[in-house]
TrEMBL record:
Chief location: membrane
SUPFAM superfamilies noted in UniProt: MetI-like
Protein's organism: Albimonas pacifica
Compartment(s) where it occurs, according to its Swiss-Prot or TrEMBL record: Cell membrane
Similarity comment: Belongs to the binding-protein-dependent transport system permease family.
Membrane-topology descriptor: Multi-pass membrane protein
Span of domain ABC transmembrane type-1: 95-299
CDD domains, alphabetized: TM_PBP2
Transmembrane portions of the chain: 12-30, 65-91, 97-122, 134-162, 174-198, 234-261, 281-306
Keyword terms, alphabetized: Cell membrane, Membrane, Transmembrane, Transmembrane helix, Transport
Pfam families from the UniProt entry: BPD_transp_1 (PF00528), BPD_transp_1_N (PF19300)
Protein name, as recorded: Peptide/nickel transport system permease protein
């Protein structure tokens, strides 16, 4: 097991290093002059040259990369060109909102998807199964940002039950929670559609195995068989999709935060791109990439924990 974790950790770090090189290369190959964007077209060449020197753009690319990645290892991503404050401080300020939105979206996704998927499997080829398949197909077809707009029109504009956007801050817990309801639903419903179909397929496959017939023969209730025996044996594909979807929920929050005007990392990366604040964009892209890689790492570890055959191989 320790050897397995060591191999996966080395692969995780190597992937992050490769991603950091790609991100830095892409950011520095983009056309345009960041100094011109910051100072405007009316600025003088001397002023732009001085700002480039202050930004470190006059140094060789290799030297800038080593300085950037060395600082990132200790949590120093440099100073934002447009905000004039440390990038790490900007991320630390906005990260809790994005993580809260992603976590709530993932919890709702799991609850809705597992309930619908298992119910559909239990009612295979019945109206309940067909209804779930239809709803999941609609959920897959609907873009999250369009669903978010529809939810705003219904619950904020027409019914006025929930705020249409904005975030009052964590100092007002009730208002903060209500402002995250619509964004959470927007993220979760689309992801739930995919996971519900995977859950249904995995559960149906597990229900065809011999141990399920044996459990029925012993007189166990259908609900006990479904949740205590079928679900644990259907977890492998479900865990795979959950790992992928958590990364998708975090990155999907970028769009949802802009729809609902939430001051998280999603709005920060849009603002940084618009201001050509490359140092901030680099840090945010690297962070989102690290979340995706970490999710895959955790999925690999979860496989070993839930599948005894893989656990035996890992040891």
């Amino acid at each position: 097991m320790l050897l397995f974790l060591l191999r996966r950790t080395v692969g995780f770090l190597a992937t992050l290093l490769a991603i950091s090189v790609i991100v830095f290369a892409v950011m520095n190959l983009l056309p345009g002059d960041p100094a011109l964007t910051v100072l405007g077209i009316d600025s003088t060449e001397d002023a732009r040259a001085a700002l480039r020197a202050q930004m470190g753009l006059d140094r060789p690319a290799a030297e800038r990369f080593l300085a950037w990645i060395g600082g990132a290892l200790v949590g120093d991503f440099g100073t934002s060109w447009s905000f004039g404050v440390p990038v790490a401080g900007l991320i630390a300020e906005r990260l809790p909102l994005t993580l809260s939105l992603a976590a709530s979206g993932m919890v709702v996704t799991l609850v809705v998807a597992l309930a619908l998927g298992m119910a559909a499997a239990a009612n295979h080829r019945r109206p309940g199964d067909w209804a779930m398949m239809l709803l999941s197909q609609l959920g897959i077809a609907v873009p999250a940002f369009w669903l978010a707009i529809l939810l705003v029109l219904l619950f904020a504009v027409t019914l006025r039950w929930l705020p249409p956007g904005g975030f009052p801050g964590w100092g007002e817990p009730a208002a903060a929670a209500s402002s995250l309801i619509l964004p959470t639903i927007s993220l979760a419903l689309v992801q739930s559609a995919v996971l519900a179909r995977v859950t249904r397929s995995a559960a149906l496959e597990a229900m065809r195995l011999d141990f399920v017939r044996t459990a029925r023969a012993t007189g166990l209730s259908p609900a006990r068989i479904l949740w205590r025996h079928v679900l644990p044996n259907a977890l492998a594909p479900i865990v795979t999709i959950v790992g992928m979807q958590f990364a998708g929920v975090v990155t999907g929050a970028i769009v949802i935060e802009n729809v609902f005007y939430l001051p998280g990392l999603g709005r920060l990366i849009f603002q940084s791109i618009a201001n050509r604040d490359l140092i901030t964009v680099q840090a945010l892209v690297l962070m989102f990439a690290a979340i995706v890689v970490a999710a895959n790492f955790l999925v690999d570890v979860a496989y070993v924990l839930i599948d005894p055959r893989l656990k035996a191989r890992a040891t």
